[in-house]
Amino acid sequence: MKLFALLLPLLLSLDTSTAFSTTSTKPKIPLKGITASQFRHPLDLSLTNVIQNAPFHQLAEQAIRSSFSLIEQGVRLDLLSSAVKVSPNQLPELHEAMQVASQLLDMPTVPELYVQSSSQANAYTLALQSKHTLPIVVVTSTLVERCTNEEIQAILGHELGHIQCSHSLYLTLGGLLSTPLRGLPIVGSQTEQLLQRWRLAAEYSCDRAAMLVAQDVDVVAGAMLKLFAGTDRVTNIKACMEQANEYEKLLRDVNPMVRMSVRMQQRTHPLPVRRVVELEKWAESEEYRKLLSGR
Q1: Which residues form the Peptidase M48 domain (predicted)?
Q2: Which of 34, 163, 22 shows the shortest CA–CA distance to 97?
Q3: 137 has which bridge partners?
């Protein structure tokens, strides 16, 4: 839809493809008092702190929130007219999944959830929180049809991560504050590369939020596998890790010009194999274990 195309960078999406089944009975640990800074990727955290401490931060934030409230109104009207709003009486399994995911991340509010008809398996978020309206999360019909309950809940956790981290706000502020630098020689290209790395780091942060909701690396990695392959028949996580290792080895061994061209490609999301590797590393980290233990 044309309206959605106007929302970038407001719409922060997790592309995924993955038969709706019952939710796991494995108990999960509510993360009371958790803050975004506790699970942000290091680069996401450091650059967000820079923006928060920048002069005129509060003034710029108010201006952005005021401007984007009009977009939010348009999106909500469009969704109410053309999508299905999830509620206790409409797709109650999805409603419960969102409620539980929000509770696990100790969200102050539970976003509105919509299901939109699409041949693409996708989820996205209008992540700029307004004081007067609820955040919006949208999942597509294809995603719902391909995913298990646990996988959908993990995907919702990813989208909640965008909301918890206020990525739309801070990435927009970062882009605005860096505008004067982008026209300068050398500095301009370095600034663009840094912003690109920040966008990718924001996705890593939200993969961690998905992990905190699922509390099972196989669930999140399984959803990612279905994303990469575009089918729910791909389930071997170990084989995917082997593929990731093969990629890293080849990247080290290729001609430096080829390696540079790969690294300079503009992307809205990290490379799929890198996301799986980063997720596995963080799932085994002391940082993750401390969060689950309440420290």
Answers
A1: 90-282
A2: 22
A3: 113, 125
201 burial type by CB count under 10 A (0-12 exposed, 13-18 middle, 19+ buried): buried
Calpha distance 17→286 (Å, rounded): 30
Cα separation, 35 vs 67, in Å, equals 26
- For 229, the 3-state DSSP assignment is helix
- With a cut of 70, say whether residue 186 has pLDDT above it: no
How big, in percent rounded to 5, are the helix, strand and coil portions of the chain?
60, 10, 30
Which tokens in the block code for residue 145? Answer: 């049809």
Residue pLDDT, tens place only, 259-277: 888 777 766 678 888 888 8
The torsion angle over the Cα atoms of residues 221, 225, 226 and 230, rounded to 10 degrees, is 160
CA distance 71 to 4: 10
Residue range 127-149, pLDDT digits in tens:
666 667 889 999 999 999 988 99
The answer on pLDDT for 22 being more than 50 is no
Let me know the angle formed at the C-alpha of 224 by 191 and 246, rounded to the nearest 5 degrees.
75
Q: How many CB atoms lie within 10 A of CB 280?
A: 17
Q: Is 148 strand, coil or helix?
A: coil
- What the block records as the tokens of 287 is 């940082």
Sheet holding 84-85, edge to edge: 11-15, 122-126, 136-140, 112-116, 84-85
| Phi and psi angles of residue 176, each rounded to the nearest 5 degrees, phi first | -70, -45
CA count, 13 A, side-chain hemisphere, 131: 4
Is residue 159 part of the annotated active site? The answer reads yes
